[in-house]
């Protein structure tokens, strides 16, 4: 192996001070004061009250994907970006959502508290109840359930397999009861024409029913599942593009600054993730008239809470050329809670990349130490799988009101917002300002990573 000349080693060492390791070729890093002067062009312009006010506006109500409230948020965001002079686009995409049915279970004239399973078909059935244990294939060998209702205990195999096994034996409906305390709200995973209507009971009610049957008592039940079903809905991404200011001197590189505007049902989502969207909007305002040689795309994703649908839809629209030109994706999700921990950068594979390097360097310059971690669970994931260096910026550990009605404006900290805006703003500007060279291509080689949240209802 050829030894590096001494001069190159010195250069490499000086580069690590102010610039991320992936930074380009034979350039010496400017002295720290010069760098800070550049950061100040961003930092001094950030007005945290703008971020706070936008969170206030967006979090006046929950913004569930596919609803009017989401659309109102989308229009608010687009109008803001357009007001700074950006080209904007609303990118709509379809998705399917399951409408929860009303269910009832009546036994000997008494209505028993019951719950539904996602993807159960609608229907009504009356019949004799038969205890089939866990409804495994073995439990049902040689059993004819035609016209009967199967009573099944939770455990061992998936809810879907229990329903399919009972349906195959002829059952007209299925009751699954819990094997632990509390109510049971499961999912069958996906729609299936072979399913029959299925409802859930508590462990107490299920055990009682099972012991009546074990004592030889005949029990007849009526089950109703009404109003459930898969609906076609539409959600939207908002894209605002800052083109390089001087086309002749521009690099061909693109940076994506992302956040998601949808929230979960019942939560105003002030921190999750009006905070990220509002911070992106403020960074877009700050950068609107600044000279840049790199394209910056501010993207607000829809339907993140339903499985990162907006960011997957967005990445799908990217050509190979665009994928190659996107050098980094900064996702801000939950960046303003007064009750959460410090700012952490999460990557899908837990490895550092050019995005975390840039932000860590910005942190050094602005006086914040950032920590690292491994996490999916947000819109940086589809970018990672497209081979694009990406990171989630989030305060961790997260606040106790995450996904609750308490995720409201009064819990938002301006100091937390300010810090995030400074770091992400300074990191992006470090690349985008005209006097820094283009980044070296730093593709990630995505590998499958287990990040999916635990789906509690599958078994
Ligand atoms: N903001 C959260 C992600 C999050 C929360 C990351 C806490 C790390 C700690 C995001 O909006 C969310 O709720 N994501 C879903 C996953 C997604 C694939 C549906 C989640 O984590 O349940
Ligand atoms: Zn979120």
Provide a descriptive summary of the structure in words.
This protein starts with 5 loop residues before the first helix and ends in a 27-residue tail after the last helix. Helix 3 packs across helix 13 and helix 8 packs across helix 13. The strands form two sheets. Strands 1-10-12-11-13-16-14-15 form an eight-stranded mixed sheet, sandwiched between helices. An eight-stranded mixed sheet has the order 3-2-9-5-6-7-8-4, with helices on both faces. By secondary structure, it is an alpha/beta fold. 32% of the residues lie in helices and 23% in strands. Ligand BES binds next to helix 8.
Report the average pLDDT across residues. 91
Instruction: Summarize the amount of helix as a percent range.
Output: 25-40%
Bound molecules: ligand BES, zinc ion
Task: Report the major sheet.
Answer: 8 strands, mixed
The structural class is: alpha/beta
Low-confidence stretches: 1-26, 452-457
> Strand order, biggest sheet?
1-10-12-11-13-16-14-15
Strand content: 15-25%
The count of helical stretches stands at 13
Rg, rounded, reads 27 Å
SSE order in H/E notation?
Answer: HHHHEEEEEHEHEEHEEEHEHHEEHEHEH
The total of beta strands comes to 16
Distance between the termini: 56 Å
Shape: elongated
């Amino acid at each position: 192996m050829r030894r590096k000349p001494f001069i190159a080693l010195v250069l490499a060492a000086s580069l690590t001070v102010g610039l991320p390791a992936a930074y380009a070729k034979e350039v010496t890093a400017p002295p720290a004061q010069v760098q800070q002067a550049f950061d100040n062009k961003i930092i001094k312009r950030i007005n945290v009250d703008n971020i706070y006010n936008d969170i206030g506006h967006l979090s006046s109500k929950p913004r569930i994907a596919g609803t009017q409230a989401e659309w109102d948020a989308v229009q608010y965001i687009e109008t803001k970006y357009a007001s700074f002079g950006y080209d904007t686009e609303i990118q709509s995409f379809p998705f399917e959502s399951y409408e929860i049915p009303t269910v009832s279970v009546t036994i000997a004239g008494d209505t028993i508290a019951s719950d539904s399973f996602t993807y159960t078909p609608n229907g009504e059935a009356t019949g004799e109840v038969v205890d089939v244990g866990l409804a495994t294939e073995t439990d049902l060998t040689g059993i004819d359930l035609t016209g009967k209702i199967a009573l099944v205990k939770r455990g061992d195999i998936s809810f879907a397999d229990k329903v399919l096994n009972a349906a195959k034996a002829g059952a007209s409906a299925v009751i699954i009861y819990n094997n632990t305390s509390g109510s049971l709200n499961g999912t069958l995973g996906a729609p299936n024409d072979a399913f029959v209507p299925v409802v859930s009971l508590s462990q107490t009610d299920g055990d009682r029913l099972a012991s009546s049957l074990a004592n030889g008592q005949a029990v007849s039940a009526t089950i109703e599942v009404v109003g459930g079903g898969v609906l076609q809905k539409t959600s939207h991404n908002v894209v605002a593009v800052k083109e390089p200011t001087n086309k002749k001197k521009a690099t061909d590189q693109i940076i994506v600054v992302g956040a998601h505007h949808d929230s979960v049902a019942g939560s105003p989502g002030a921190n999750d993730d009006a905070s990220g969207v509002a911070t992106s909007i403020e960074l877009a305002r700050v950068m609107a008239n600044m000279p840049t040689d790199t394209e910056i795309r501010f993207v607000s994703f829809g339907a993140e809470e339903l499985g990162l649908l907006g960011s997957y839809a967005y990445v799908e629209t990217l050509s190979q050329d665009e994928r190659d030109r996107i050098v980094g994706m900064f996702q801000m999700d939950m960046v303003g809670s007064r009750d959460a921990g410090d700012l952490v950068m999460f990557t899908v594979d837990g490895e550092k990349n050019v995005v975390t390097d840039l932000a860590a360097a910005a942190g050094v310059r602005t006086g914040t130490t950032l920590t690292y971690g491994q996490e999916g669970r947000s819109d940086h994931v589809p970018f990672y799988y497209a081979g694009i260096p990406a990171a989630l910026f989030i305060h961790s550990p997260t606040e106790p009101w995450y996904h609750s009605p308490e995720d409201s404006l009064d819990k938002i900290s301006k100091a937390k917002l300010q810090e995030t805006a400074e770091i992400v703003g300074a990191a992006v500007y470090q690349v985008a300002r005209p006097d820094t060279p283009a980044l070296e291509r730093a593709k990630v080689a995505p590998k499958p990573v287990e990040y999916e949240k635990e789906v509690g209802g599958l078994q």
